[in-house]
Amino acid sequence: MPARAVPCCRCLAALAAWKDGAAPVCRDGNSAVTKKCRGCRDLGKPCIGPSGLLKARAIALRAAIAAHPSVRPAAVKEAQAAVRQVHQARRDAAARPARERAERQGSSGAAAEKAAAAANKTAAAAEKTAAAVEKIAMELQQLRGEVAGPAELYRKTHEATVEAPHHSEVEKGWVPATWET
Length: 181
Description:
Number of helices: 5
Shape: rod-shaped
Distance between the termini: 138 Å
Number of strands: 0
Structural class: mainly alpha
Strand content: under 5%
Order of helices and strands: HHHHH
Largest sheet: none
Radius of gyration: 49 Å
C-alpha cells in the first residue's frame, strides 16, 4: 500500500512526535470501500486530512523525513516543531470559545445571583404587604365592633320611633286607616 502524499491529522501527530526508530508512515487502507488510512481504520477512528497551513507543514515534514528516512536531522526537527506549533494554535483556538463560554457562565452566574437576590427582595416585599393588609383587616374588624354597638343601639331606638305613632298626630284626631276598628 502506498504512502499518502499528505498524512491525515492522526498520522501527522505521530510524525510530529516521532523521535527515533522507523518513522511512522500514513498508508492507504487496503479496502476500496473506505478512504481511511490503515492506522485510523485499525483504531476505528475518523480519518481527517489536514487543511490550510497545517497541510503545508505536513507536506514539508513528510518531505524532510523522506529525505532522511532513519535519522532525525535539524530539518526534520524544525518541520516537527512547525507542525506542533500549528497544532497548538488550533487547540488554543478551539479552547477559546470554551473559555469564553465559561467566562459568560461565570458572569451569568453573577446575574443568576442578582436575580435570586431580586426575587428574595420581592418575596420580602410581598410578605410585608400581606402583613400590612392583615393589620388593616384586623383594624377594620375592630372598627366594625366599635361601631356595631352604637349602630345597633341607634337602629333599635329609631326602629321604635318609626313604628310608634307620633303623639302629636294622635292628639289632633288623625288616625291612620289601619287603626280604625
